[in-house]
Specification:
This is N-acetyltransferase. It holds the Pfam family Acetyltransf_CG. The protein contains 3 helices and 5 strands. With 103 residues, it is of the alpha+beta class. The protein has a 5-stranded mixed β-sheet with strand order 1-2-3-4-5.
Length: 103
């Protein structure tokens, strides 16, 4: 399965398109005034569940965030759990904001 993750800022989300352009899922975000990317919700079309689409989506979104040199706040439980399982992405999490949300 071919998959491509792109930022769709006009919709406030990263999208993953598979097999010729069909949107299989998305990760909603908002950007704060200081550039922090807050991931709020992730959704994958039920026909793609269990095929690794959600993980590819999060990885692609976080790779883009890293390339832009900004930090993230994973409010979305899926994004938070994915980062916990991939510690090489933990450096992207804004620890100050994270502690304010989880305390």
């Amino acid at each position: 399965m071919d998959a491509e993750v792109t930022d769709a800022p006009e919709r406030g989300r990263y999208e993953i398109r598979v097999d010729g352009g069909e949107v299989a899922g998305y990760a909603h975000y908002r950007t704060t005034t200081d550039g922090l990317v807050v991931f709020t919700h992730t959704e994958v079309d039920p026909s793609y569940k269990g095929r690794g689409v959600g993980g590819r989506l999060v990885r692609g979104a976080l790779d883009d965030v890293r390339a832009r040199g900004v930090r993230v706040l994973p409010v979305c439980p899926f994004v938070r759990k994915w980062i916990e399982g991939h510690p090489d992405y933990a450096d992207l999490v804004d620890q100050v904001e994270e502690s304010r949300v989880t305390d």
